From TrEMBL, chains A, B:
Provenance organism: Roseivivax sediminis
Catalytically driven reaction(s): 2 [molybdopterin-synthase sulfur-carrier protein]-C-terminal-Gly-aminoethanethioate + cyclic pyranopterin phosphate + H2O = molybdopterin + 2 [molybdopterin-synthase sulfur-carrier protein]-C-terminal Gly-Gly + 2 H(+)
UniProt keyword annotations, A-Z: Molybdenum cofactor biosynthesis
One GO BP: Mo-molybdopterin cofactor biosynthetic process
Family: Belongs to the MoaE family.
Subunit structure: Heterotetramer of 2 MoaD subunits and 2 MoaE subunits. Also stable as homodimer. The enzyme changes between these two forms during catalysis.
Pathway it works in: Cofactor biosynthesis; molybdopterin biosynthesis
Superkingdom of this protein's organism: Bacteria
Reported function: Converts molybdopterin precursor Z into molybdopterin. This requires the incorporation of two sulfur atoms into precursor Z to generate a dithiolene group. The sulfur is provided by MoaD.
Protein name as it appears in the record: Molybdopterin synthase catalytic subunit
TrEMBL record, chains C, D:
Protein name, as recorded: Molybdopterin synthase sulfur carrier subunit
SUPFAM superfamilies hit by this protein: MoaD/ThiS
Lineage: Bacteria, Pseudomonadati, Pseudomonadota, Alphaproteobacteria, Rhodobacterales
Organism from which the protein derives: Roseivivax sediminis
GO cellular component: molybdopterin adenylyltransferase complex
One GO MF term: nucleotide binding
Family per record: Belongs to the MoaD family.
Keywords for the protein's UniProt record, in alphabetical order: Nucleotide-binding
UniProt KW Nucleotide-binding keyword: yes
Listed Gene3D superfamilies: 3.10.20.30
Pfam families found in the cross-reference section: ThiS
Keyword Nucleotide-binding: yes
One GO biological process term: Mo-molybdopterin cofactor biosynthetic process
Amino acid sequence: MRVVVQEAPFDFGAECDRFAAGRRDMGAVVTFTGVVRGDGDLATMEIEHYPGMTEKALTAIAEEAQARWSLGDVLVIHRHGPMRPGERIMMVATTAPHRRDAFEAAEYLMDYLKSRAPFWKKERAKDGDKWVAATEADEQALTRW
Amino acid sequence: MRVVVQEAPFDFGAECDRFAAGRRDMGAVVTFTGVVRGDGDLATMEIEHYPGMTEKALTAIAEEAQARWSLGDVLVIHRHGPMRPGERIMMVATTAPHRRDAFEAAEYLMDYLKSRAPFWKKERAKDGDKWVAATEADEQALTRW
Amino acid sequence: MDVLYFAWVRERIGLPKERIETSAATVTELVEELRAREERYAVAFEDLSALRVAVDQQLTDFDAALAGAREVAFFPPMTGG
Amino acid sequence: MDVLYFAWVRERIGLPKERIETSAATVTELVEELRAREERYAVAFEDLSALRVAVDQQLTDFDAALAGAREVAFFPPMTGG
């Protein structure tokens, strides 16, 4: 299991390649990456986080995924700081002997780190700054698990 | 949309990177890759396919995914020929404005190309060769959609 | 009409493809003709529930009509992915 | 006890962190103390349903006891991913 919180960009292709390498016992590898959408006149997206708690929360979420599904490995990378549209904010990856476990665990990780990891997004645009509000849909997504 | 059927290995990391690049309008990118599991004394896995029909079937499955979900793009790469444990057999990738669409479409692609694309796997091991049988679970997976 | 065989169907019949002159109206009729030919066909087509069929590269079922078909393929359930 | 504020809570209160001497037994009691201090606290803590709280870096609720706590953090619902 690897959990990384960093300001710097990460190399999505290289991370996917490294994560999938040499998994002779794992038939399925799922990856997800989230990208800053260039909606409207968004100039930058700024992500604030809670140093210390962030790492703990992400680790707890990844451990819970490993407890619930039969997984080989879990990777979580989440950035903070300012990002421009098109930049990759975060990624998760899972390996499992069977594809269903890998997919479900990746969705679980996403649903939980969306609403239970201490990150807050601020959109900076020409006409002002705005904190992104948590959505009812994101909170509802947790009821699946 | 890109559908590729080839004998040669593909570069998973490079494909992930290229697929995710420049998606300013898409917040979510999901990738899946299937790896030959080194179960028992498996020496090689040999994949036979139906040239001509394979490309048509994969394209039809990808088009159906695009019709059912709000997607940006779809990628399907599937190999045939002999492969050793640890080699990557195939990959799918999806982009969508929202993560749920990207995940569901990727799972749909996997479920359908598992049971509705003309590929057949033969396991070659020390104690003999064996055609992989389709499973009831794989057929059942289609009833989700 | 071209008739193609894949995976263990190909192995049982002993060839991947052959040209067949037939007046069979449906896939089932074609299967009956093939079964009557030789033992290896009878063995390959013994249990139709273990087989799938494509006509002109489209999955279909054994009731399908063959009028105008150029290519019929027989194979076991697929195992892609 | 260290009290931390994030996102718009931090902006409304005007600082990210402060040291507070308190005998509050629960998070709710601490919130009452803070509200009584100054207008900017009253504004930040106006609607508790719009806030979340962590005690010693664990998400919890406003009923949580503060005995032994070293760090309390207030923030809006999280928006990661």
